[in-house]
Amino acid sequence: MQAAKLASESGIILRNHIPPHWKDYKKDATHLKELMGKVAAQFTIDIEDKAVKNACTDLLKGGQRQLRYQLKKTYFDGVPANEVPTTTPVTRMTDDQWKALVEMWSSSKHKEKCVANKKNREKVQFHQSTGNRMKYKDVEPNAIDMFEECHNSTKTGMSEAVKAQMKAIVDEPAPEGKEPKTPAEAVAQTAVPKRSSKARVHELEAQVEAEKQCSAELREKLALDKKVMESEAAREKEREEMAQARKKEQEEMEEAIKKQKEEMAELRKQYEATNNLQKCSPNRPTGGRLELVAR
């Protein structure tokens, strides 16, 4: 209640005393001080408090915007250029301030901004509004009911196409093994805002950039894997060479042992042959003994 009284009193002060310029309150603090001083005369408030200053600043900003809108609607929109007042039509602003407003309204930049804002307002699909929930006194409303209450116009009601689309999503048979979609999922699927082409371009650019980054990371990973594989191959080759060297050394050792055994066998044969000859000879010395001299 007090906030409504403050807004109402501030509106009266703005309409009667504060000029509706669009940036003067930022450059000149006297407008804000004048508003707070006149408000303080009507209410018991501390004008030095930060919250009070912020509230009065918002009221000043919004009130001046509404006053400019009313002035433009009355004295500029639909009025031929030669019939637009050259002097201020209201007593609370100077001729220079009025000329500055007219110049701003006449600029191409301001006109383009107005056209863009109008197009953006036309894109709104679901106008939000408050609704009466008394009909849900005994039944708990679902997401579709709440959506209808919050996006229901008193003149046209809720869009029948949107309502039918939500109902069709809920009534759609679910695939085997899956649960049917809930009203909340139907609302989420239907009320998704349309993305502009510019947003889509930004999204695609982000995807391309992400893919480039992934490709770079993949190349780095492949290069690292290649180095690891080359290192493993080099170690495997080294192990094979060492195994072959050990095998060759083993074969040479076995060959040497075999050769030594053959030589020993040959010497043994010679020894036995010599002994046999001595036994067969009639003049062999008695008690003599032939010793095998090692080579």
Automatic annotation (TrEMBL):
Biased composition (Polar residues): 272-284
Sequence ranges of Basic and acidic residues compositional bias: 228-271
Region Disordered, residue ranges: 228-295
Name of the protein: Uncharacterized protein
Lineage, broadest ranks: Eukaryota, Viridiplantae, Streptophyta, Embryophyta, Tracheophyta
